[in-house]
């Protein structure tokens, strides 16, 4: 026992000296990133505390408000249904929303196919790909809703502006996705066909598109799923009709929570269906790469 | 030093004083001249980076020459406009080390790609091939022993099978010349033998000239009618396989130490 204690204290000493030597090591250099992050965190902390202290609650009883919210959520999610909308009518409106998404995806995919070819580095000269990529990055940087509002100036608020705006954003998204799929095809395959006298269009349709068709389909469907979500928002924000508009009316005008619930469930159901298909598509991409 | 071997016909391909500079340092090709007759089987050997691949690609102008001239059937390739260049290219087949097939398409689709150069843009892009073209492709595929794989995707094939698809794609062009860029460098000895023998056979039967870049000197000795030795962008040997002595090989490969050991064919 004492032997063991001895050996323990024996081992203690070198550890202590190690700690001492560690403390003598030079401190890790304070990098620029670290300074920025620390500064940011402290600013955030200060503003949070300040905002909480000066919160204008407008005399709302927070407990009361919380329980009311819960009660509303209960009505929305447990008692869906509505006087204004029958289930079939709501379904019909969802189909309209799907239609908006479909149109935007279709137009977007068609335009993006050609822009994607011009944006692929193995198919187009570098200046051209650079211009396409810069243009597409710019379009993508502006949110969909802004494009819709921009086109609303000429087309008026409604389905037309919504589809054009969503198409715009779809083009930018799909062009990037497509051109990257095209770039996956080895330059040497293109070289082989060129060497046999094939021209650009023949190479594109006989080699490039067949090689990337799985990717193209999958990306397009992913975008369709995104456009569905966008189309719901457009219904409300841009008066593009469809289920989004009904949701807006139900929540903003009729204050009919049961109807909000019905619509939410419908949108959720469709979103889940689309998401499931999209995930399968993604897996197909992965399988193909393996 | 160099000796022009007996040509079986009038020169089909004439390369004269070809230079290629990539970036102004050492030229990749330095004053290359040779001519090739109908049905000749020419092996090009030399160390890595000697300019063998560049030389092949200058012939069908996949790479533009810096100086000099390549004449194919009496026409100067470097003077051609795009359209005529494509016509010339459609008469020159090409086979690659990595086969360069569209892996997701079937064997027959890949073979038919060899016809694109002789078709209109539209029917080529839509993949509309005539009955004759399909029959020809089928024939070549079965001649190359791939009959049971006709409708299989190329990514399911072995390396040797892929290279045979590559050969069929070149042959379906009805080429006068086939350029082979290291056709067996990625294949095992057995598959290599099959490929070389098939190339030799088609060269003989269809009177197609072959220019084959090779790493293996013994393969060059066994199959070719003529060997071009290339080192640092220059032709340092041009003659029959029987004239290629170990000293010559050492000269081609730079030093005696780096010369590969050679098994002599007859």
UniProtKB/TrEMBL annotation, chain B:
Keyword Transport among record annotations: yes
Molecular function, one GO term: ATP binding
Pfam family, one: ABC_tran
Keywords linked to the UniProt accession: ATP-binding, Cell membrane, Membrane, Nucleotide-binding, Translocase, Transport
Cellular component terms per the entry's GO annotation: membrane
Record flagged with keyword Iron: no
Domain ABC transporter, first and last residues per copy: 13-257
SMART domains for this protein: AAA
Listed CDD domains: ABC_PhnC_transporter
Function noted in UniProt: Involved in beta-(1-->2)glucan export. Transmembrane domains (TMD) form a pore in the inner membrane and the ATP-binding domain (NBD) is responsible for energy generation.
Record-stated family: Belongs to the ABC transporter superfamily.
Name of the protein this chain belongs to: Phosphonate ABC transporter ATP-binding protein
Organism: Bradyrhizobium macuxiense
């Amino acid at each position: 026992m004492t032997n063991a204690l001895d050996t323990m204290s024996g081992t203690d000493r070198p550890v202590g000296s190690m700690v001492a030597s560690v403390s003598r090591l030079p401190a890790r250099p304070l990098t620029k990133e670290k300074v920025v992050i620390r500064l940011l965190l402290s600013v955030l902390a200060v503003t949070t505390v300040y905002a909480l202290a000066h919160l204008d609650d407008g005399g709302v009883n927070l407990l009361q408000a919380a329980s009311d919210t819960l009660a509303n959520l209960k009505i929305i999610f447990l008692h869906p249904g509505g006087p204004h909308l029958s289930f079939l009518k709501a379904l019909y409106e969802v189909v309209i929303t799907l239609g908006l998404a479909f149109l935007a995806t279709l137009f977007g995919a068609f335009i993006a196919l050609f822009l994607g070819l011009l944006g692929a580095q193995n198919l187009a000269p570098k200046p051209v790909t650079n211009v396409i990529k810069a243009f597409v990055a710019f379009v993508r940087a502006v949110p969909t809703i802004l494009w819709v509002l921009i086109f609303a100036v000429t087309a008026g608020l409604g389905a037309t502006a919504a589809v054009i705006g969503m198409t715009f954003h779809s083009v930018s998204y799909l062009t990037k996705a497509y051109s990257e799929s095209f770039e996956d095809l080895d330059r040497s395959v293109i070289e082989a066909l060129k060497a046999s006298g094939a021209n650009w269009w023949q190479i594109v349709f006989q080699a490039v598109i067949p090689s990337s068709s799985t990717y193209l389909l999958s990306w397009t469907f992913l975008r369709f799923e995104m456009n569905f979500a966008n189309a719901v928002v457009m219904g409300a924000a841009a008066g593009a009709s469809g289920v989004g508009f009904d949701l807006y009316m139900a929540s903003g005008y009729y204050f009919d929570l049961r109807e909000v619930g019905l619509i939410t469930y419908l949108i959720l159901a469709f979103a889940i269906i689309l998401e499931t298909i999209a995930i399968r598509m993604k897996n197909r991409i992965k399988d193909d790469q393996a | 030093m160099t000796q022009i071997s007996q040509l079986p016909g009038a020169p089909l391909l004439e390369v004269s004083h070809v230079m290629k500079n990539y970036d102004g340092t050492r030229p990749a090709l330095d004053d290359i001249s040779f001519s090739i007759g109908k049905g000749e089987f020419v092996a090009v050997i030399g160390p890595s980076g000697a300019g063998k691949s560049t030389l092949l690609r200058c012939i069908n102008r996949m790479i533009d020459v810096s100086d000099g001239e390549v004449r194919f059937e009496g026409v100067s390739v470097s003077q051609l406009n795009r359209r005529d260049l494509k016509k010339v290219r459609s008469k020159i087949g090409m086979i690659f080390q990595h086969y360069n097939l569209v892996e997701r398409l079937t064997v027959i689709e890949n073979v038919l790609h060899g016809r694109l150069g002789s078709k209109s843009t539209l029917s080529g892009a839509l993949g509309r091939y005539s009955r004759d073209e399909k029959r020809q492709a089928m024939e070549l595929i079965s001649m190359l022993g791939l009959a049971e794989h006709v409708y299989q995707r190329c990514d399911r094939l072995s390396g040797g099978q892929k290279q045979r698809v590559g050969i069929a794609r070149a042959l379906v062009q009805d080429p006068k010349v086939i350029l082979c860029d290291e056709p067996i460098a990625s294949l095992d000895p057995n598959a290599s033998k099959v490929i070389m023998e098939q190339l030799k056979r088609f060269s003989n039967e269809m009177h197609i000239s072959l220019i084959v870049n090779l790493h293996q000197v013994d393969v060059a000795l066994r199959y070719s009618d003529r060997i071009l030795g290339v080192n640092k962008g220059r032709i340092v040997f041009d003659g029959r396989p029987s004239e290629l002595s170990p000293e010559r090989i050492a000269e081609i490969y730079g030093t005696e130490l780096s010369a590969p050991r050679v098994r002599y064919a007859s």
